[in-house]
Amino acid sequence: xxxxxxxxxxxxxxxxxxxxxxxxxxxxxxxxxxxxxxxxxxxxxxxxxxxxxxxxxxxxxxxxxxxxxxxxxxxxxxxxxxxxxxxxxxxxxxxxxxxxxxxxxxxxxxxxxxxxxxxxxxxxxxxxxxxxxxxxxxxxxxxxxxxxxxxxxxxxxxxxxxxxxxxxxxxxxxxxxxxxxxxxxxxxxxxxxxxxxxxxxxxxxxxxxxxxxxxxxxxxxxxxxxxxxxxxxxxxxxxxxxxxxxxxxxxxxxxxxxxxxxxxxxxxxxxxxxxxxxxxxxxxxxxxxxxxxxxxxxxxxxxxxxxxxxxxxxxxxxxxxxxxxxxxxxxxxxxxxxx
Length: 339
Known about the structure:
about 0% strand
């Protein structure tokens, strides 16, 4: 049940921040109908003639005197400066989070090699899954799937999306890890299902998506570092409270589909609960899932369960997607408020 409630209910927020003009202009509607005579066409006035001449003058690339306002170059910095800026954000977040929340570290001499290997493989599969979702979402967006998705009934989108995502996730988790082909095929199906729902995010500017991804990596990386270096099973008690919190966040995500548009104040508060409450809840899930991965590594080392990094990565993928979507919405709100 916990995995079902953590499904990213984000289609409404993704569509909300799309550009206002995403369709191509239909110039064919303004052309002269077939069979119309020239008598129906009004003669050009001197004003329209002057406007056409001015536009032709400004749009002529061969004109030696191009009287337009030159674009002011923005100082975006070199690639090295951007990488340094991103590394500073991630490193500073890790240090600050560790100093605040990780007062009690492990007392067993550090993380043993088998835990390190299991954790590294889990995060490797998490990154691979996120990359697969990004590539699939971009491919679906270029094929026109995003336009078709936005024209569908929202309830149909939610129902089919949940059925595909939850069904593939349950099938993946139920498959034995020794059955590699079926396991990775179902895992790929799960990732493609996520990409199909999140493809409208590709309407947004790539710079905004890149910033949201950077902030998400910084947040998850710092919290995962705390979970990996804290005492064993210190944060596993958070499972119950986090499940209650994610239920509230999920219900608030459905509010725009149920409440009328006249309930503006209620919708405003439900959006805040979905946005900022979701950040807190899924940040807590990242901490919980990291310690759960280490606990499963110890159980697998003792022979009580099989190693299954694919199942572990699904939980972290859902954490990443939910945090990333909220980062996108926060950055989109900040950009719209500056205009």
